[in-house]
Each structure stands twice: as structure tokens, then as C-alpha cells.
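Action item from last meeting closed. Structure (275 res):
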């Protein structure tokens, strides 16, 4: 089960003002809106809910739009058949809220084995960052990371960290970490927020300032995140989204960080998409 279907994540979603209903073990996130009708999201379920049971719940909240984004174990053809049974008064959302493709890096084995799976360019970048005097510390300072991310993301950067503090607060200390990268003169130039669930560490938020990028801090940060994921008891690090070639006309701006993430030796994971 991925984190979006956990009780912990449901509690976080409630804190953002959404209603959470449960049907046969499946969490349904609902945002009611007067007049125009509400929206519902069903994310990363391993089993599609029974439509005859689902529709009365959606109608109760006057839901008019439904986003269904299942786990990778749900077959595309099964999702397509399921979508055809949704009544016409409920529109299916075809613009995903969460990524349809990701990369997961195995962190089992010895550190030198994990390091050897990085591309030659990434191994070289780790060494160059270290030579440049960049250091990474494991922290609980989520506020420092959010400030850095907001700054690095530019205009309206705060949108990229919306809800981050509430999610961080919902997690126990054993399921989260912040990694912060500093220059030799102690300037903060990059960071990552890791959250863990069911043996998977999620690369939830990441950011770096231009100076950090020049010093190869982002690569060193990911290498340290892989080691910290292992320390937290996880089996893999999930990069939480890369560019999906099945949507060739969307998210072109993701191609840059997708190339970056591909250098760490992970495996691609595809999620079924609403047809």
C-alpha cells in the first residue's frame, strides 16, 4: 500500500479541509463545493471500489468530478472497464493530480553496491560536490527546507510547499527526515524532505539554489538521501514523479529533472491512466 492510502495520509488530508470517506478499505478524498458540485480523488488503491457502493457516497456530497489514480498493480484494461461504468453525471478527471510515472531506487545491499549502480556521471558529481566542500546534514528543520524551496522555486514558489508542514507534523520522527546541504562557509544551498511508508522512502520535496547546483549539491543530496532511506529501514527511494512519455504533450518542463533522476540506477514504475 502506498502512502496515499494510509490512515496517516488520510489524517493529513482532513487537516487540509477535505472529507475522507472509506469504502471497503479504500480512502476517498472529497472536497464539497456549493452550486458547482464537489470533486473526489481516489489515489493509489490496489483494488478499484465497487461502483454501486461508490456512487451513493459521491452523490451524498454532490460530487460532479472524480479523479481515479490507482496503484501500479491495477491493470490499465481493468481501469478502462471500470471507468465505463461511472454514471454520466460524474465526470472523470483526465488531468492527473499525482504523477503517472516514477523511478524507484533499490537501497538494499551495501553502500558501495548502491553507489556502483549510479551512473558514472553521478558518481563523479558526488565526488566533485565533496571536493567543493559541500556537506549534508540530517535534520528535523522542516522550516529551513520550506524557506529554501520557496526561494529556489521563484515566483509563487510557496505553492510547491503547500501543506508540507502539516504532513511533516503528521509523521512520527522514525518516518521522516530533512537533509540540508551546506557550502564550506555554512551557506544553506539545497535540501530534501524524505517521508517513509511501508518500506518506501518518498522524495517528497527537493530544492537547490543556483550556487548549490554549481557545486553539485543536488547529486550529493540524493546520494545521502539513498543512505538515509536505508537507515530509516526502507527498501527503496521513490522519486515521486518523472516525465511520462505516454503524455507527450504535457509536463515538458519535467524532462530536465527526469534526466537527473535517471542517473541513480532506479527502475521505472508506471501507473494506469484514466482513458
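Sequence:
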Amino acid at each position: 500500500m502506498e502512502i496515499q492510502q494510509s490512515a496517516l495520509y488520510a489524517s493529513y488530508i482532513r487537516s487540509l479541509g477535505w472529507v475522507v470517506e472509506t469504502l471497503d478499505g479504500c480512502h476517498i478524498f472529497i472536497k464539497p463545493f456549493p452550486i458547482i458540485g464537489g470533486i473526489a480523488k481516489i489515489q493509489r488503491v490496489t483494488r478499484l471500489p465497487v461502483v454501486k457502493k461508490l456512487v451513493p457516497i459521491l452523490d451524498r456530497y454532490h460530487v460532479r468530478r472524480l479523479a481515479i489514480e490507482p496503484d501500479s498493480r491495477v491493470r490499465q484494461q481493468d481501469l478502462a472497464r471500470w471507468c465505463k461504468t461511472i454514471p454520466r453525471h460524474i465526470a472523470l478527471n483526465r488531468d492527473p493530480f499525482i504523477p503517472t510515472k516514477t523511478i524507484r531506487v533499490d537501497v538494499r545491499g551495501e553502500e558501495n553496491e548502491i553507489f556502483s549502480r549510479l551512473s558514472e556521471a553521478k558518481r563523479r558529481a558526488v565526488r566533485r560536490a565533496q571536493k567543493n566542500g559541500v556537506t549534508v546534514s540530517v535534520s528535523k528543520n522542516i522550516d529551513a527546507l520550506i524557506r529554501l524551496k520557496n526561494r529556489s522555486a521563484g515566483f509563487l514558489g510557496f505553492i510547491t510547499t503547500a501543506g508540507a508542514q502539516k504532513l511533516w507534523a503528521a509523521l512520527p520522527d522514525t518516518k521522516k527526515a530533512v537533509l540540508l546541504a551546506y557550502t564550506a562557509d555554512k551557506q544553506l544551498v539545497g535540501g530534501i524532505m524524505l517521508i517513509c511508508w511501508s518500506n518506501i522512502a518518498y522524495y517528497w520535496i527537493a530544492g537547490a539554489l543556483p550556487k548549490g547546483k554549481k557545486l553539485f549539491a543536488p547529486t550529493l543530496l540524493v546520494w545521502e538521501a539513498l543512505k538515509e532511506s536505508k537507515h530509516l529501514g526502507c527498501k527503496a527511494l521513490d522519486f515521486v514523479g518523472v516525465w511520462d512519455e505516454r503524455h507527450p504533450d504535457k509536463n515538458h518542463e519535467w524532462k530536465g529533472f527526469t534526466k537527473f533522476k535517471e542517473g541513480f540506477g532506479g527502475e521505472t514504475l508506471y501507473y494506469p491512466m484514466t482513458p
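Note appended to the action item: The mean pLDDT is 96.
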